Amino acid sequence: MRAYADLAELARARGDSERAAGIEGAAAAAIERFDAMLEPGRFPEGDPPPSTLAHRAVMEAERSRLRGGSDADHWRRATERWTPLDEPLGLAYAQ
Prior knowledge:
mainly alpha
């Protein structure tokens, strides 16, 4: 998602709204595929792993950046997902 956000920012900076829209569509499809992997039937013993949900929160934060902003609330939620995990790189990225 980060790469999509970076590419969309670059396209907007160059005034290429058509390219930015195409990138947004590709990002939406990637999120859709990721979300399909989170369907309850895929985790018969419970919820998806916490790190998976943390990655999903980062994806949402990056999507806000992809759309031309960067929503602090999305990044805060991503940070909250990473905080209890023993994964300093994921936490640092979200912060």
